[in-house]
């Protein structure tokens, strides 16, 4: 009998991070980091795990969206899906009735991400390879087949994508060797949560430098005077040679962003992240022109590859920050990496959330080995939260992500963590006052 997908289970898993204000920023003052956690099982007892990240209330809506995709997955041939994951992804995002809820945006698109990520996790496990290596060892033709070019051809053609991948092919083995030896550069947001005291910020910033990080990030946007004070304290703590990025999490309008950033410029912020609405492409372009040489970064809330295309075409960003579960999973992120390479814009993935570090490391490492061929000005975000709940947590050494060797995408949660944090019946939630 042909191996089939026999079940797709989804769990609403939430962690009470709001208690310590971990993850707090100008727009999300008390988030509870949460995962819409997906497990697909096959008739041969293989499993694949994926997730979409949210910040608490509403995670049940995300879980319902995943459940709505179940009929497109259960009963399908594993061999068929793995032979053409690009076609399967197009089915997930193209179902005519479910597509109406987007199209290609919001909770239904993030549901597709969770399922697509679970399929890639399954593929890696069956191949015995981490997903970064699985992707990096695919042929240029196989990688291009993952991409839906329908809305991209005015910016990236299949022929141009093939040229990018073929150009990077000769150095794949050497870059793989270097990656396994050294890892991939990271930066840390751990010191910079908005709810932390000045003393905690300074202590964590110094610890980050001692741990080998050459870039940290601070949340800004709630209070202009506090931002100047905190950025000044951080600059004094880390010195002139460590980059400090700042992140407004969409707090400002366009003119407000420009005015707010001028007094911060003498403290040499490396980039300003999400300075305004993530949908405002021309607004980002205007901010970028006005605040240079401060770089403009965005992408964690960018809804799909078409919006990334327009951000790049408009010259609106200096740094592209893709997310593992905002767009439709690994498959759509391959297209976004190719777009970034076409426009010569560095990719620094967003990872401020549960499970995102575990997943986005694969995308950045694949990009280095098989697409861009460089780590220059490229760093993966790192937050020191919740990794203990995963069966294959990220490993850092001297400010670098070490390349994962465990087969799959790294999104599998420990069963005991799922049981304890399932909302609302898990004991962690039942015992909270």
UniProtKB/TrEMBL annotation:
Pfam families: MR_MLE_C, MR_MLE_N. It catalyses: L-fuconate = 2-dehydro-3-deoxy-L-fuconate + H2O. SMART domains: MR_MLE (SM00922). Its EC number is 4.2.1.68. Residues 198-294 form the Mandelate racemase/muconate lactonizing enzyme C-terminal domain. GO terms for biological process: amino acid catabolic process; carbohydrate catabolic process. Its cofactor is Mg(2+). InterPro entries: Enolase-like_C_sf, Enolase-like_N, Enolase_C-like, L-fuconate_dehydratase, Mandel_Rmase/mucon_lact_enz_CS, Mandelate_racemase_C, Mandelate_racemase_N_dom, RHMD-like. Keywords: Lyase, Magnesium, Metal-binding. One of its GO terms (molecular function) is L-fuconate dehydratase activity. This is L-fuconate dehydratase. It comes from Streptomyces triticirhizae.
């Amino acid at each position: 009998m042909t191996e089939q997908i026999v079940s797709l289970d989804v769990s609403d898993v939430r962690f009470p991070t709001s208690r310590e204000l971990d993850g707090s920023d100008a727009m999300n003052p008390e988030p509870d980091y949460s995962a819409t956690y997906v497990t697909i099982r096959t008739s041969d007892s293989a499993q694949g795990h994926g997730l979409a990240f949210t910040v608490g209330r509403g995670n049940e809506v995300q879980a319902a969206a995943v459940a709505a995709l179940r009929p497109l997955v259960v009963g399908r041939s594993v061999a068929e899906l793995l032979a053409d994951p690009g076609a399967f992804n197009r089915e997930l995002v193209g179902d005519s009735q479910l597509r109406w809820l987007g199209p290609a945006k919001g909770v239904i698109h993030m549901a597709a991400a969770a399922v697509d990520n679970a399929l890639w996790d399954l593929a890696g496990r069956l191949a015995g390879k981490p997903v970064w290596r699985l992707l990096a060892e695919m042929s240029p033709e196989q990688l291009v087949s993952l991409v839906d070019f329908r809305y991209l051809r005015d910016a990236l053609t299949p022929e141009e994508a093939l040229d990018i991948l073929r150009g990077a092919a000769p150095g794949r083995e050497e870059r793989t060797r270097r990656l396994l030896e050294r890892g991939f550069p990271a930066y840390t947001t751990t010191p910079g949560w908005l709810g932390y005291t000045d003393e905690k910020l300074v202590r964590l910033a110094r610890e980050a430098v001692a741990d080998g990080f050459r870039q940290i990030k601070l949340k800004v946007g709630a209070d202009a005077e506090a931002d100047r004070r905190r950025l000044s304290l951080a600059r004094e703590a880390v010195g002139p040679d460590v980059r400090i990025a700042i992140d407004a999490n969409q707090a400002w309008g366009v003119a407000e962003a420009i005015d707010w950033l001028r007094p911060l410029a003498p403290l040499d912020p490396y980039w300003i992240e999400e300075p305004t609405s993530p949908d405002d492409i021309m607004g980002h372009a205007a901010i970028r022109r006005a605040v240079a040489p401060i770089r403009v970064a965005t992408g964690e809330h960018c809804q799909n590859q078409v919006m990334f295309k327009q951000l790049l075409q408009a010259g609106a960003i200096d740094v592209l920050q893709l997310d593992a579960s905002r767009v439709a999973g690994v498959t759509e992120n391959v297209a976004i990496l190719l777009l970034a390479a076409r426009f010569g814009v560095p990719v620094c993935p967003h990872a401020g959330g549960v499970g995102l570090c575990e997943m986005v490391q694969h995308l950045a490492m694949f990009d280095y080995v098989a697409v861009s061929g460089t780590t220059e000005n490229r760093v993966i975000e790192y937050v020191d939260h919740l990794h203990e709940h995963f069966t294959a947590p990220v490993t850092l050494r001297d400010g670098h992500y070490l390349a994962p060797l465990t087969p799959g995408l790294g999104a599998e949660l420990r069963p005991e963590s799922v049981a304890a944090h399932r909302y609302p019946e898990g004991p962690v939630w039942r015992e909270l006052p």
